[in-house]
# Entry
Amino acid sequence: MTADDGPHPSPGHAATPAIGDTVRDTRRNRFGIVTDRIGPYLRLRPLTGGRAWEAESEDTEPVSAPEVLRARLAEVNARSSRPCPGG
# Structure
């Protein structure tokens, strides 16, 4: 028995992400959580908060649980290395 790391769309067929799914925006090489659908676009929010953006559904791909964990850790580490404002 193997662990399932997340969605695995069949080759040549992109799965349509649902609200709440974590995806990679392949055009911007960013990870985001789907918060809304607007026509062919998905509204994505960064994993650790911040300004949302829109991506075409065809420019996104599902990510596995380990990839999400690595991406969240990378964002937290990047934020912690920034200088504090006013400090």
Remarks:
- Helices lie at 65-80.
- Residues 6-13 have pLDDT under 50 and may be disordered.
